[in-house]
Amino acid sequence: MQKLLEEIVAVLPEVQVVGDCDKIIKDITADSREVREGSLFICLKGAHVDGHKYLEQAAASGAGAALVEDVPEVCPDGLTLLKVADTRLGMEVIAPFFYDYPGKTMRMIGVTGTNGKTTTTNIVRAILRKAGFKVGLIGTINIMIEDEAIVAHNTTPDVVDLQRALYRMKEAGCEYVVMEVSSHALALNRVAGCEYDTAALTNITQDHLDFHKTLENYRDAKGLLFEHLHEGKKENKTAVFNMDDASSPILCDRTKTRILTYGEGRNNDIYPLFFKVEAKQMRLQLHTPVGEMDLLLKITGEFNVYNVMAAIALAEQIDKKTIVDVLNGFDGVPGRFQLVEAGQPYTVIVDYAHTPDGLENVLKTARSITEGKLWVVFGCGGDRDNKKRPIMGRIALELADRVVVTSDNPRTEDPAVIIDEIAEALKDVPEGKSVELIAERRDAIYHALSEAAANDVIMIAGKGHENYQILADKTIHFDDREVVQEYWKKR
What we know:
Blueprint: E1 3-4, H1 5-11, E2 16-18, E3 24-25, E4 27-29, E5 39-42, H2 55-60, E6 65-68, E7 80-83, H3 87-98, E8 107-112, H4 117-130, E9 135-138, E10 142-145, E11 148-151, H5 159-171, E12 176-180, H6 183-187, E13 198-201, H7 209-212, H8 215-227, E14 238-242, H9 247-252, E15 258-262, E16 271-277, E17 282-287, E18 293-297, H10 302-314, H11 320-329, E19 338-339, E20 347-351, H12 356-368, E21 374-378, H13 388-399, E22 402-405, H14 415-423, E23 434-437, H15 441-451, E24 457-461, E25 468-470, E26 475-477, H16 480-490
Parallel strand pairs: 4-5, 5-6, 6-7, 8-12, 8-13, 9-12, 13-14, 14-15, 20-24, 21-22, 21-24, 22-23
Antiparallel strand pairs: 1-3, 2-7, 9-10, 10-11, 16-17, 17-18, 19-20, 25-26
C-alpha cells in the first residue's frame, strides 16, 4: 500500500505544507519506533508523551513526511511537514484514506457493551465461517484474519492500527468483519472511516468511569455506534438490542435503522422458551425469527443465554441448521467461564469478569453448580475505575462462601491500597463465611487450591485469558490457568 504525498495533502482540510510534496508514502504510524523508509509520522500530543519530540528520530529512520501541530525552528533534513490544527483529527482523515477505506467495503458487524462482547463476536465469526464466508475478527483477545492470529493491545485498536488490520483483511478476501467496539474507541473516534452494517448492544453496567466519569456518559459513548449507524451508503442496516438492559430503550429511540430485539420477554424477536444450566453444559430452547432452536451447548450460565441470543440476531440471514450446528459445537472462548482440569477433586473456573455485573453473573452461575463451598479469588485493576471496588467486594461476599481478595493488574497503584478499597465492603462477614486478603496473586490462588474440599467450586476472576500481570515498573508473565496446573504438578 502506498500513496503520493500530494494525494494525502489533498484530503487534509486547512493544511500548511513545509517542504516537498513529490514523494511516495509507503506507511503511516504514530509510533516513532515503527517509522521506516517512506513513512508518514503522525505527531500526537498525549498526557505523557509529545510526538513532536521524535521528529529528528523519525527523519533519521527514513520518514518522508510528518503530520504536526507545531513547526520546529529547524526542520529535519528531507522531512516534509504537514501542519494541521489537530493531528488526531488529521489522523482520522488520512488513515482510512491511505488504506482505501476498507471499513466501507466489507460487511461490518460491531458489538458493544460492558460484558459479553468477546463470546458473542466469536460465536458470530464461527457461524459466518461455517456458512462459507471469509471472516476477520477484531477483539479483546486477538485479531483474526481467517486463521491467522495477531495479538490485540486494545479491545478496539487505534485508528491507524485498525485501518491497517482492516486493509489486511480485505486483501485476504474477507467478506465480513466482526468487531468488538469499546466505549473508548467510540468516544475517541478510533473507528473513523468505518461504516457498520449491523451493531449490537449486549448490556451497559458500571465500568470505565475513570474515563467517562458518569454512567450516562458511558452509555452515551456506546450510543454513538447506533446514532450514526444509518449514515453512509450501505443499505439494509440493523441494530440489535438486549431489551433486558435498561439502556436499550434509550438507545433504541436514537436509532434510525431496523431494530431486532432479544431478551426474556416474549415480545422480543428472540427469547428463551426454556434453559437449564449444568456444570459443563446448558440446555436451551429459543424462539427466533428462523424458527425454534433446541440446543445442547458446551458453554453454560444465564449470561451465555444472552450471548447466544445476540449472536443469532447478528448472524445475518444464515440458515437455522448452520446456526444450530455451530452453537452446539462451540466450546467457548479462552478465559470465559473456562474449566481448568489439573486432576483436582473440586471444580476450578477461570473468568475474565472484572466488573460488578460480570462478577455477579459468573458467581451466580457458579453458585448454581456448587454442591460444597463457593470460593472466589479476585482483585481490581489499578489506574482504573476505583468506584467499582467496594461494589465488587459486596457482590463477592454476598454470593461466595470463601472470599480471597488479591492483586489483578495493579499498574502504578499500590496493590495494598486497591485491596483495602475492596475490603471496605468486607468488614461484616456473616457466620459461616470467610475473607482473606492476600496481595500476591499466586499465593492467593494457592491458598484457595490448598484449602478447598471436594465438591467445592473455585472461581478465579478478573484476568481470564490474560497471560501477563501489569506492575508499576514492568509486565510479567502470569496466567491463572497455568498457576492452577503448576500447583497440582507440585502436589
